[in-house]
Specification:
Elements (H helix, E strand, L loop, with lengths): L5 H4 L14 H11 L11 E6 L2 H10 L11 E8 L8 H21 L3 E6 L4 H11 L5 E10 L30
Antiparallel strand pairs: 1-2, 2-4, 3-4
Helix pairs in contact: 2-4, 3-5
Bound molecules: flavin mononucleotide (FMN).
Length: about 180
């Protein structure tokens, strides 16, 4: 692994956090990184809802079955898309833009020493409607993903999941390992 890319390999999903607060300045850094992401025709169809209130974080965790870590995280960010702002009002463009922003945010968190975990929302209807109701989202605003954030209580080893069977050169090649 190229050491220059260590900031990518060391980004891991962190699901337990210390009680130490995350400053507003650091949150601003994360959001600047998120909004530096590529976006189709620079439409920037994203919104970021920053949540520190413990009751709201607990309510989010109840809506998201795999987001239990939000109960204990000092901070959550709900990443939402505005379908009216997305290129051609296309859901796919909106999701691609938001995924790029999510990854920038997660990498920035890692570089700053924070721990973070992507918590899935879209396309699970019950999670989307639950979060829309909880936060009073207007119709055009689609909750896409949440991030649980804090100072890591645990670390995980740096690694890649590089799989040579997923790399094709010049033309398609089928290998027995290609599907795994
Ligand atoms: C679309 C998406 C949804 C995810 N949803 C959850 C989730 O709800 N809960 C969770 O704990 N992790 C979630 N993850 C994190 C993955 O489980 C994690 O990225 C994967 O296991 C690889 O581990 P790593 O992030 O440490 O490299 C999600 C990741 C993505 C990209």
């Amino acid at each position: 692994m190229n050491p220059a890319l260590q900031f990518i390999f060391s980004r891991r999903s962190i699901r337990s956090f210390t009680e130490q607060a995350v400053s507003d300045e650091l949150v601003e850094d994360l959001l600047q990184a998120a909004m530096a992401a590529p976006s189709a025709k620079k439409k920037d169809p994203w919104h970021f809802l920053v949540i520190r209130d413990r009751q709201r974080l607990r309510a989010m965790a109840r809506i998201q079955p795999y987001g239990r870590m939000l109960r204990q995280a000092p901070l959550g960010i709900l990443v939402c898309g505005d379908i009216e702002l997305a290129l051609d009002q296309e859901l796919s463009f909106m999701l691609q833009d938001l995924s790029a922003a999510m990854e920038n945010l997660l990498l920035a968190a890692n570089v700053l020493g924070l721990g973070a975990c992507w918590v899935g929302v879209h396309p699970r209807k019950e999670r989307m409607s639950g979060l829309a109701e909880l936060f009073g989202l207007p119709e055009r605003i689609i909750p896409v993903a949440a991030v649980a954030l804090g100072w890591p209580a645990k670390t995980a080893e740096a690694r890649t999941r590089y799989n040579p069977a997923r790399v094709h050169r010049e033309e398609w090649t089928e290998t027995s390992a290609g599907g795994s």
